[in-house]
């Protein structure tokens, strides 16, 4: 499976910079599995190689500037770590998702940035 390394930045307007590497479950690599709500199903136009929804882009921008994620910055994100255009690979990776989440150092559910109507002043990350 693949993992994503997110480069840190304090500038929320800077482009999101990341790289993807392959690894195996046996390596025991520490990563954060990121689950997120799609919200708006359209993709951003920021980078044609990185097809993400606006809500996922918000999550990446938030986590690249937030400790402790800023230092580790290693994530598994289905939209980016699975080759979405390869149906055979996508099917095989979906079958592995239980193991991917189970072996993650931490699982984060991203619901979106906090708004004035939110119950919390924190952004929408729930750590499990």
In words, what does this structure look like?
The protein is α/β, with parallel strands linked by helices and 128 residues long. It has one domain (2-110). 27% of the residues lie in helices and 21% in strands. It is built from four helices and six strands; from the N terminus they run E-E-E-H-H-E-H-H-E-E. The chain has helices at residues 54-64, 69-72, 78-81, 87-102; strands spanning 2-6, 18-22, 32-36, 74-77, 106-110, 125-127. The protein has a six-stranded mixed sheet. The chain is globular. The two termini are 21 Å apart.
Short description:
With 128 residues, the protein is an alpha/beta fold.
Helix content: 25-40%
Individual helix count: 4
- What percent of residues are in strands? 15-25%
Strand order of the largest sheet: 2-1-4-3-5-6
Radius of gyration: 14 Å
Structural class: alpha/beta
What labels would you give this structure?
128 residues; globular; alpha/beta; six-stranded mixed β-sheet
Itemize the secondary structure elements and their pairings:
Blueprint lengths: L1 E5 L11 E5 L9 E5 L17 H11 L4 H4 L1 E4 H4 L5 H16 L3 E5 L14 E3 L1
Parallel strand pairs: 3-4, 3-5
Antiparallel strand pairs: 1-2, 1-4, 5-6
């Amino acid at each position: 499976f693949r993992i994503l390394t997110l480069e840190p930045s304090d500038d929320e307007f800077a482009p999101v910079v990341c790289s993807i590497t392959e690894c195996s479950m046996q390596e025991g690599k520490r990563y954060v599995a990121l689950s997120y709500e799609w919200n708006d199903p359209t993709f951003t136009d920021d980078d044609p190689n990185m097809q993400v929804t606006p809500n996922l882009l918000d999550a990446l921008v938030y986590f690249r500037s937030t400790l402790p994620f800023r230092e580790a910055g290693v994530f598994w994100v289905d939209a980016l770590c699975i080759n979405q255009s390869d149906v055979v690979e996508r099917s095989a990776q979906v079958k592995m998702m239980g193991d991917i989440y189970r072996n993650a150092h931490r699982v984060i559910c991203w619901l979106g940035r906090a708004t004035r109507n939110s119950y919390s002043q924190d952004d929408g990350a729930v750590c499990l």
